[in-house]
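Quick start: what a row looks like.
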Amino acid sequence: MPKIEKQSMAARPKAVRSSDAWAYADKFSMMIYGQSGTGKTTLWSTFPGPVLAIICGKRSEEMRSIDTPENRKKITARMCSTGAHIEEQLAEAKTGKYETVVLDHGTSLRQVLLREELGVEELLQNRWGLATRENYYAVALKTKEILTRFLDLDTYRVIVAQEKDHAEDEEGGIDRSELLEDVQIASFGGDFSASVIRWLNPECSYIVQTFKRPRMVTTTRTVKMPGGKTKSVTETKRAPKDARGKLPVDFCLRVAPHDVAITKFRMWKEGTKNLPESIVDPTFDKVMQVIRGEK
């Protein structure tokens, strides 16, 4: 009769208690995307400090637009040209010294990781053709790992990205041919690969777009009607040139649902009745007023 040996069961992992979901309602995550020069950096610089800004790439002139003595005291900005540099700053972000952590920006993050994946110092235009599907898959996976750690921080988390039309994405973007006729799908969003953006959009609490538009002015004048009567006529037209001879523009932040631009704005249901199409000259305080339904 074969001998039956007593087998010991592996120790069960120590149970971890669930956490209070309300504790995560205060500090939110936001992805800010838009074309260059539309106010992305200016907006995140208004978030509560101290701020840690993880600037991806070998060189960046983004900080020029916010270079003031106050911001130099409030913002710690670190250039990160390697994956190791980014990992180092993610560890620094967990020290509890910062109210806001910024990752600026997604396109440069991808270039840093792809450069390391290919083992090259510079990522020239013709080098992109050397990357295989496996290289892009590895970069997307590493990007998700970094962003997961970033989104897990107990701070305000701001991801900055350039703008991209994902309907034209060669890596598996939005295929409109398979959509139902009554389904509206926006395609402009943050400049990440298709696989990353499909994962990232649901993970962010807020997705907003910066843009510029012509400044409009509304005037009311009184005109005389036949018979001596008068009436008020209201007109809205583009603002005239300023003292420098330039047509003024408004820097805006799109927050409301849009046919083309991807947006997401979490707020209590009744507050959505007051959700504006956009916020002019956006700041953190103005965003919070809209979130609370105060504006």
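That is the whole record. The domain at 26-291 is CATH 3.40.50.300 (Rossmann fold). The mean pLDDT is 85.
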